[in-house]
Amino acid sequence: MKAIIIEDELPSARRLERLLQDFEIEILIHLNSVKSSVAWFQKNEQPDLIFLDVQLSDGLCFEIFKQVHISSKIIFTTAFSDYSIKAFDYNSISYLLKPINTQKLAEAIFKAQKVVQKETDLAEFKKLFSNYFIENYKNSFTVKVGKNIKIIETKKVYCFYSFDNATYLKTDEGNYIINHSLTNLETDLNPNEFFRVNRTFIVNIHAIKDIVSYSNSRLKLILNSYSETEIIVSRERVKDFKNWIE
Description:
By secondary structure, the chain is an alpha/beta fold. The chain folds into two domains: about 1-135, 3-Layer(aba) Sandwich (Rossmann fold); about 140-245, CATH 2.40.50.1020. It is about 30% helix and about 35% strand. The chain has helices at about 10-20, 35-45, 60-65, 100-115, 120-135, 180-190, 240-245; strands at about 1-5, 25-30, 50-55, 55, 60, 75-80, 95, 140-145, 150-155, 160-165, 165-170, 175-180, 195, 200-205, 210-215, 220-225, 225-235. The strands form five sheets. It has a five-stranded parallel β-sheet with strand order 2-1-3-6-7, covered by helices on one side. A five-stranded antiparallel β-sheet has the order 12-11-10-14-13, covered by helices on one side. The chain has a three-stranded antiparallel β-sheet with strand order 15-16-17, with no helix packed on it. A hairpin with a 2-residue loop joins strand 16 and strand 17 (about 225-235).
């Protein structure tokens, strides 16, 4: 049996691959995002089985289904352990809760092979996660200040930015390093309040003090309490930015 692993956390992907060594399953490739998965499916034959993480670095895995037709058997993986998901033990959806153990893995593989996945069950599974993540955007961050740990509410963050291979958040109290990439933050933050204006910055709509026309049809943002560098809305994002602020 041939399979692929779609998982954005490398340690989890490697652990799953090690567990699968006990089964007659050949792993063709490890993918880590919606974008890379869609590109792979468009160029390759579909495998017998897909181990698919629900939340990927650039969105929920269900976005893949909007762009390509998946005929493979699917085993979803997730760290989401709310009681609601237990209902899916009794329908056609095969899933694994992280951290994955060998017994549950064997049961999921057996179920995926024997049970036909119904579109109605898949739609309910998608709805469960879509509703959960919409209602559960990140509302705080923990940062290290010397020997202390400080909790910062997301609503108090003016912007997030990357600099010198690190990610920072900015409040009126200062700049703090966080253990998140801007790509991950795009899915963790409420899109009604935060927008990625370029490769380097994600801004809070409530922190924007002024918007100024800039060269090459771009826009320059003036934020409250931030003046270290210019924040420019990239030309390809200007239209979406204008729709966002409206």
